[in-house]
Amino acid sequence: MFTLNEEYKVLNLLGSTLISADLNGVGIDVESFSNELVVVATTGLITSTGATYVINIQGSTTVNGTYSTIGSFASLSGTAFSYTLAELALDIKDTGANKFVRAFVDTTANSGTVAGVIGLVAFARPFLAEQNLNSSTFA
Asked: Is residue 8 a part of any domain in this protein?
């Protein structure tokens, strides 16, 4: 029997980053995983009171290709969303863009500045579970 650590790979879609404008993450190859992803978004300190953030997960057939949105979190705005989290389950099988995924944070200043810390990780199930799929060593 495999453990949770051996059945799911943790993919870093967006390291905790201070968001001050729209931001595209780097495409991650998910072709060797099943078509289901669970994405967890975490926020740190959000100091902008009027800015709106829409966190999208996008897919493409090539790493540097055209990405299209395959799922979105509910938008957030204001300092009340500091130090919170949300999860989004995605089935990317029928999206037509299931080889690479990335995060895209769409910001709108509304009033004032855009300043908030956001991070995203995805949990993906490999086709075959295996030991040492994840590591406690930073990489």
From this structure: yes
- Which residues face 100 on adjacent strands? 29, 60
Nearest to 21 by CA among 125, 132, 129, 116: 116
Kindly report, residue by residue over 64-117, the tens digit of the pLDDT: 999 999 999 999 988 889 999 999 999 887 666 668 999 999 999 988 889 999
Q: What is the CATH number of the domain that holds 57?
A: 2.60.120.660
Provide the domain count of the chain.
Answer: 1
Query: Which residues constitute the domain of residue 115?
Result: 4-126
In angstroms, the CA 10 to CA 30 distance is 11
User: Cα–Cα distance between 7 and 73 in angstroms, integer?
Assistant: 25
pTM above 0.85, yes or no: yes
CB 4 within 8 A of CB 125: no
